[in-house]
Amino acid sequence: MKDAKEKVAVDASVKEHSSRGRTTTSDSIHDSMSRYVTLLFAAACGISVANIYFAQPILDNLSGEFGIEHSTLGILITITQIFYGVGLLLLVPLGDLLNQRRLIIGQMLLSVIALVIVGTATSSSVLFVGMALVGLLAVVTQTLVAFAATIAAPAERGRVVGKITSGIVIGILLARTISGVLTDLAGWRSVYLVSAALMFLMVCGLCRVLPNVEREVQSLSYPQLLRSVLILFVQERILRIRAILATLIFVAFSILWTSLVLPLSAPPLSLSHTAIGAFGIAGVAGALAAAKAGKLADRGYGQRTTGLALIILLISWLFISYTEQSLITLVIGIVLLDLAVQAVHVTNQSMIFALRKEARSRLTAGYMVFYSIGSAIGSITSTYIYAHYGWGGVCLLGASVSALALLFWAMTLRATAIEKL
Prior knowledge:
By secondary structure, the chain is mostly helical. 77% of the residues lie in helices and 2% in strands. A two-stranded antiparallel ribbon has the order 1-2.
């Protein structure tokens, strides 16, 4: 076990420089994480992650443009998600090995190219390749989160991570709405070309504020780096617990957001796609409210925050179950669900970032893989359940997963308390 830890470890001695090459102290880098820089990180993350969700409301447009059969059109979304998962495993851990500033800028510039490829695609083959690259490079969001946790002062790490993670959730929720609006105004290609322009502006902004942190690292090869992600799971109990919680809460999150369009677009509601997309704004309200969860984690209330949030998550399904009778109760349920999921997610990240400062990128990669697994499970199961058991079955499924998450947290909390005795 000792040898394994030595293999995972990266020399923590750091030479830190500002983005203009000036040598700075650790404290001065921590001071640089101002509100402006935090919001810039959040905006960059939101735009980056939105890129993998833009296609969902415009699949019909892509089908007509490229002659893709409706039966195979879903592959576009699947490819993007698969390559996002590949990026989590292969690219995010590089943040512990390479210069993070260069890695972030490089990935974002490549994302600009990938978005231009999609926006100017002339064949379905080029479109599929472009979407795969968009998914692969969108993981720069997680590199940004890990880097922010590194340069933020320990006392404010949870608050910073909370705000940046809120930017990610807002990007996910508003991507569909923005995509639909831009498509109506200027065609589907404008979605990706506008995003490419915004990504380039983010690169320009980040170039000015990202500190240049040079590490003297051990001779760790790339295969060893990837293996060390698995070693971290063996060594860190908190990582294992929080990864399972991430799976469960994102199963619940995906159950709602994947299947919600089905009852809203069907009689008696029969809402338009624009109206359906507007419900994402309610989710944004919940995500913003949960940003304070990071502050509570900083003060040592991570477990209490988790328990309260999971109770709220379970209660939210009661309101969501009345969707077909009242859209007001649905809005309340969405706010509660997104508040709860975001609060647990921020708390999870705050707790795992405190484990090993030299391995934050690998901790992020390992944790977010379970996020992707949970999202995929929720998407697949929710549409199947709706087809066979209707909206009531979907809500029962969501409530059951939420109850399982609460039960798992309670069991692990008790086990942890016994270990400390």
